[in-house]
Amino acid sequence: MIKYRFNIILLSLILSSCSNFLTWHLDKGIHKKTSIQAKSTVESETIVENYNISSSEIWSTTTNNGIHGNTGYLKIYKKNNLIYSVDSYGLMSAVSSTSGKIVWQIATNYDVSSGISLLGDKVCFGTMDAKLICFDIETLSSNSHLPVITSMKNITTFSKTNPNIEIDLITELASPVLSINNLFLLKLDNDDLYLIDPSSQDVIWKSESQNIPLRTKGASSPLVQNRTVYIARDNGSLSAYDQTNGTLKWLTIISSRSGRNDLESQRDAEMNILVSKDRLFYGHYQGDIASLDLNTGDIIWSSPLSFVNNLSIHDSSILGSTTDNVLVSLDKASGFMNWKNEVNKDITEPFIIDKIVMIFSTDGTLFGYDIENGKKVYEQEYGYDIHPKTEFIIEKNNIYFQSGDGDTIHLRVNL
Fold first, then answer.
1. Which structural domains are found in the chain, ordered by start?
2. Using one digit for the tens of pLDDT, what is the confidence trace for 55-86?
3. Rounded CA gap, 405 and 293, in Å?
4. What does pTM read for this prediction?
5. With 89 labelled, which of 38, 75, 319, 366 sits at a CA distance of 20 to 30 A?
6. How far is residue 170's CA from residue 57's CA, in Å, rounded to a whole number?
7. What is the DSSP secondary-structure string of 137-200?
8. Is the distance from CB of 211 to CB of 190 less than 8 angstroms?
9. pLDDT (tens digit per residue) in 345-354
C-alpha cells in the first residue's frame, strides 16, 4: 500500500511539473545534443587529403526510448517514404523519411526483443515473453496518439494495444519475421526454424537445432532465395532447405567448435547471409568466414576471421568489420586480404557510398576509406549513441538508421 501511494504521489508530481506530459521526451529531447556541420575538407595527419567528401545531418528525430536490457539491435524498416521503428517498451512509430516528422505513434506496451518486420499490410515484432505480435498498419495509424512515455510503465500500468495476430512461441524470436507467400518464416533463439500459417497457426514445417550451452542469441536472419531457405546456426553450420516442405538440401560446417572451454568454442551466427551470383558468403563469431557454392554447399575458400556484423560486396571485394575492430577487404574469388585497417574503437557494419566504404564507431564518429586501397579519407564526429549492431538503410548517398537511445537519423554524404 505504501509503495502504491508513493507511486501515485510521484506520478502527480511529474504531471504537475511538465506542461506537456505526453510529448515531453520529444519536445525537450532525452538524448544528448550534437552540433553538426557539413565538412567539405578533411584536415588530419592520418587522413589522405584532396578527397572532396562532406557529410551532413538532414534531420534527427527523437522517436522513442531506444534499446534496453539484454535485447539486440531492434531493426528499423523503410517502405516508400516512411520509416517504421519500435523500442524495447513497445512504442511504435512511423517517421517521414523526407522531413523526419513523426507521422503516427502508438504505445503497444509490449516488451520487445526483436523487430521490426513489414509483412504485407502488417507490422510485426517479437516480445521478451516469446510471442509474435502483428498489427494492421491502417489500424495503428488511425488509432495512434501521443503516448505516455513507455519507460514510466514501472510507475503505473497501462493497457496493451490489442494486436491482430498474437502467436505463442517456444522461445523468443532471434530475428525479424520473413514472409513466404502468405506464410511466416520464424527463426527462434534456440536456433529452430519454423514455417507457419499465421491465420491457423499451423506449422507447415520445422527444422530443429541442437541447443548449445553458454551461447548468446544468434540474430542472423534466414535468407529466402530461389525457393530455398538458407540459415546459419550457432553450431557453426550453414544449411539449405526446400521452402515448400522443409527438405534438407545441404548442410555444411564452416566454423568447427574448438577451444579450451565452452565460451571459446562459441560460434554464434550473428551476421546476415550474403549472396553474389552462385556464391554464398558467411562468417561466424569466433569462427571462419567462408565462400560456399550456393547450390551444393561446397566450401570454395575460408579464412579465420570473426564477424558479428553484416558484410558488403563491391565489385570483386568483400568488406567487413571484424569483432576485434578491424575493417577488412577480401578478394571475393580467393578470400585473400586486399587491405585492412585497425580502428581503436568499437565499429559497426560497413556501408558503401560510391567508392568510399564507411563505418561508424559506437561513440558516433563516421569514418570513410578508399575502397580500392583502404586509405582513410574522411572522419567526422557526430556524437551519436550507436549500437554496435546498427543496420544502415542506404539509398544512393542517403543513410537512415536508429541510434541506440532512440533517435531516427538521416545523413547525406556528398562526394
1. 68-208 (2.40.128.630)
2. 999 999 999 999 987 777 899 999 999 999 99
3. 40
4. 0.83
5. 366
6. 42
7. HHHHHHS---PPPGGGGGTS--PPPPPSEEEE-SS-BSS--EEETTEEEEEBTTS-EEEE-TTT
8. yes
9. 999 999 999 9
